[in-house]
Write a structure and sequence with these properties.
Two copies of one chain form a homodimer. Chain A is α/β, with parallel strands linked by helices and 327 residues long. Chain A has eight helices and 14 strands. Chain A has two domains: 169 residues, Dihydroxyacetone kinase, domain 1 (Rossmann fold), CATH 3.40.50; 136 residues, Hypothetical Protein Tm841, Chain: A,domain 3 (2-Layer Sandwich). In chain A, helix 2 packs across helix 3 and helix 4 runs antiparallel to helix 5. The two termini of chain A are 37 Å apart. The interface between A and B is large, with 60 and 60 residues. Chains A, B: Keywords: Kinase, Transferase. Chains A, B: Its EC number is 2.7.1.121.
């Protein structure tokens, strides 16, 4: 295992501290329990919190800031945050209008956010993200997993909260964005959890894992490596089947890298996916290409599609100022 | 070799097309000869062009847009762009105030930009970037190599050109930014050029290459893998020796990933480097952490320091709107 590392025990805390140092104008760090929140004083509106295991950076800490999250709670690598992190973050960012928690559908995350909600004396609601169409349940959760579509939910909810939507409007909107979003990924290599110091799964020198999870969970099947054109087909087919979009429907296309795949390849995937979706009769209104929901150093990528309407497009386009998403 | 790829012959053109598709509001594509330029009409000011071999994305195509480059000419992977690309791009973006070419110091790039300058009937000037303090000359060039500091030169010159600096002011400024900038990198793994389909260099499972070039050129020496703390020391020492900054000097710190190293590790490096520079008596005013000057899928990173004054800080802070840098 070759990584930039001092000790696996300190990696998450040190890395989060390094993020906050680089963005001192935007972010504040709470060291214990660990969370990141906006530096600016809270306004009277719904506060948005997310969190989950580390190793998916920039998700979620990189999306704290005006127009997106109020706080993010990073757990240890691929491990849910503890309830005390979530409770402390919620208390810090609550502005009297309630706290909305955006949770990827993993058993550990769901449990921690539920316990935190039970412990909190503020109005809380939860949006569960389960955009991964690869498998119906996996080693980490019953039901579909939450993956790269989480960013889309966080961005759109951030805009809605900023515009004054109340807690229940935010919750309903989050459910709507989630149900309009579908993702699927593919791995070329495994990730390596620092503490384990060994690949999460074995994969042959010419194999790919189609439908992989963002923790290296098994997907739908193994294949021999295929040309990019064919890999895009394997990813888009289940996504399009899930969303069942009418011809002419407007969509957002998010090409997400898993950490070890360079941008030159992600842009190739974007070209192929864009052409394929246009042939399918869809109208791509917005694109996002880059490493956003990573899996440590895994080589691979996922495609995410969100069906848009005027409201969702407006929420996507609303200003955002975070370390890793800004316009 | 596992990559997302259709054919190595089409990779660059397809990837650049994918980039432009994702940023149709900002960028325009010229397919043949290949270059990317801003979509908006040119204004009466100095036009900035850069370019170089592909495989370093987002450099340079990801930095085209208001406040930074007017055009970028991507060569084949790790291969200089041809003069006809540069000539065509210069003609497209020249607004009657001259064209400034920002060139990384590699023999091939220098030759192509020189031939293009000779062919062009517009005022041209060149800024040569050679920020890599690792080696005095290498397999690809006499003299120091141009690496991640190129982004700093492009950003500051973009702001100056936008503010109306003339061609010779821009050239002088570029030389000043370059001389105030020093970088050094380290590789944990090799990159793989798609056409070669094999690693550029062999490196053992617990070795690192200190001072590596962004094409996998040899650095200063091999070492066994060290803790991140020690690696940061190995990179900062030559940088600080080169710049010889007085205590209290203000600097920009850029932690750059080479493509295969995830953000969680880059932020760890940032924390360590930030602490080390503070102990050294420097005042870090700005940070940039991410994969900006990559080397395909190489795992590794570089540190870049630019000594600031009020003018350079203002140019760094000026608004920028490109695919991969925006504020």
């Amino acid at each position: 295992m070759k990584k930039f590392l001092n000790s696996s025990d300190d990696l998450v805390a040190d890395s989060v501290a390094g993020l906050v140092m680089a963005h001192e104008e935007l972010l504040a760090l709470n060291e214990s329990p660990l969370f990141v929140c906006r530096r600016t004083p809270k306004k009277k509106r719904v506060a948005l919190i997310s969190g989950g295991g580390s190793g998916h950076e920039p998700l979620h800490t990189g999306y704290v800031g005006p127009g997106m999250l109020d706080a993010a709670c990073p757990g240890e690598v691929f491990t849910a945050p503890t309830p005390d992190q979530i409770v402390a973050a919620a208390k810090r960012v609550d502005a009297g209008q309630g706290v909305l928690m955006i949770v990827k559908n993993y058993a550990g995350d769901c449990a921690s956010f539920q316990v935190a909600t039970d412990m909190l004396d503020v109005d809380c609601a939860t949006v569960l993200v389960n955009d991964d169409v690869a498998v119906d349940s996996s080693t980490r959760t019953p039901g579909r997993r939450g993956v790269a579509g989480t960013l889309v939910v966080e961005k759109m909810l951030g805009a809605a909260a900023e515009a004054g939507a109340d807690l229940y409007e935010c919750k309903a909107l989050g459910a709507r964005v989630n149900s309009n979003t579908a993702s699927m990924g593919v791995a070329l290599t495994s990730c390596i959890v620092p503490e384990a110091a060994a690949p999460t799964f074995e994969i042959g020198p010419s194999e790919i894992e189609v439908g992989v999870g963002i923790h290296g969970e098994p997907g739908r099947y193994r294949r021999s490596l295929l040309p990019a054109d064919d890999i895009v087909t394997l990813l888009l087919e289940p996504i399009l089947k899930d969303l069942a979009l009418a011809t002419g429907r407007e969509v957002l296309l998010h090409v997400n890298g898993f950490g070890g795949t360079p941008l030159i390849e992600l842009h190739l995937l974007n070209k192929v996916a864009t052409q394929r979706l246009r042939e399918h009769g869809l109208v791509i209104r917005r694109w996002l290409v880059g490493n956003h929901t990573s899996s440590l150093e895994m080589a691979g990528a996922s495609l995410t599609l969100t069906a848009l309407d005027d409201e969702l497009l407006g929420l996507w386009d609303a200003p955002v100022l975070t370390p890793s998403l800004r316009w």
